[in-house]
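hiii, so i know i said id send this last week but things got crazy w the move. better late than never?? heres the sequnce for the chain we talked about at the cafe, plus the structure i predicted for it. fair warning i was half asleep when i ran it
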Amino acid sequence: MKEQTLTLAAICQASHLVQQVSRHGKVDDLALSTMLNGILDTSPVDTLAVYGGELSHLKLGLETLISHLGNQSKAKDPELTRYVVSLISLERRLKPKNMNQLAEKIEQSKRQLAHYDITSDTILASLAGIYSDVISPLGNPIQVAGNPEFLKQSLNQHKIRALLLSGIRAAVLWRQVGGKRRNILFARSKIVDCAQQLLKQI
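okay and structure toks below
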């Protein structure tokens, strides 16, 4: 349950950050770099290691998960829910050949890390390109809503696509630790309880 909660929180965090960029044109740098590093860590020792080994790196995702799955919450945002559901649905369409393509392209991006920072324009463009080349053709592209002023800026477009790719990465992990869509429906209270316990440890 802890692993499923962490990976679902990561999907929520990616979705929340997409909203920050599309609505406000800015994003929390630590949360952004956490999600981008998660794409490039392809052989972690455990789930949390993907996100820097620190629960605090997923604080935003845990809070978002609680506010959207918790019964007490009035703060549910249908747009954010749509992003989460769309990421999980898109990940389910990945075939072995798509996974091989992803692995190959992610290795290329990893090599760029020797010369560029994880949040640099170069790495962001590289990760955005992977999303466009491998994930977008899978069907039903995710329509991102927001402020047109921010959405038309190429750097923001790269950030959004890179973050969507990080959401796909989190959805792959979620499935690997036994996550299923019915868990969100039938084990909601357990997931929320677990997320609350994890938040207390931060």
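btw The chain has a mean pLDDT of 94. thought thatd interest u
miss u guys!!
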